[in-house]
Specification:
The chain has 188 residues and is an alpha+beta fold. It has 2 helices and 9 strands; from the N terminus they run H-H-E-E-E-E-E-E-E-E-E. Helix content is 15%, strand content 37%. Strand 5 and strand 6 form a beta hairpin.
Length: 188
């Protein structure tokens, strides 16, 4: 008994009483509240936080539209190096995307231009955007990269077009085009 009295302090007694009260309240609630009686009306505003929601327990139907951004969709087309495409005096497609659904896109395209025997002026455009002109020396390679944005009202394809000027016969070896769907395009 003497040993028990030595361990009894005000803090120990209060902690023990608090534990019994807490357990008693939970037991009372579990025993007296009907099943499914606590719902949205009983929850205080902001009572359910991200930390209180189990990971991967919510589906798309549980989240208000527009709160979480839609996943990004990217459409890619890759053209192998062979066969080479000879560039002519008219704008011809070097690479074309698969059919894209209506929407807003950022575009990027790359092409490796192989110079002919003599120098050539190469002019390329991506989706009828501003053209890019380069002069390529004969017998050299040039890596061309272009970016653009586009808003499509209906499903269609988008191409990178190139033409040449001068007496050389440049060719396109490898080309890639990527169209990434975005929520919207804001100019400013």
């Amino acid at each position: 008994m003497h040993r028990l009295r030595g361990g009894l302090t005000y803090a120990n007694v209060m902690a023990t009483i608090a534990v019994f009260l807490a357990l008693g309240g939970v037991t009372w609630a579990a025993a007296t509240l009907p099943k499914n009686s606590v719902g949205t009306a009983q929850l205080k505003k902001n009572a359910v936080t991200s930390a209180k929601v189990k990971d991967r327990s919510l589906g798309a139907a549980d989240i208000k539209a527009g709160v979480v951004p839609a996943p990004t969709e990217a459409y890619t087309k890759v053209r192998d190096a062979l066969p080479l495409i000879a560039l002519g005096a008219t704008f011809d497609p070097v690479i074309t995307t698969p059919t894209l659904p209506a929407g807003s896109y950022t575009l990027s395209a790359r092409a490796t231009i192989v110079g002919g025997v003599s120098a050539s002026l190469i002019v390329c455009t991506l989706s009828a955007d501003t053209a890019q002109a380069i002069t390529i020396a004969g017998g050299t390679n040039y890596s061309l990269a272009m970016t653009s944005t586009i808003v499509l009202a209906a499903p269609t394809t988008v191409s990178m077009y190139c033409s040449k000027g001068g007496s050389g016969v440049p060719q396109v070896a490898h080309a890639t085009i990527v169209a990434t769907k975005v929520g919207r395009i804001v100019s400013g």
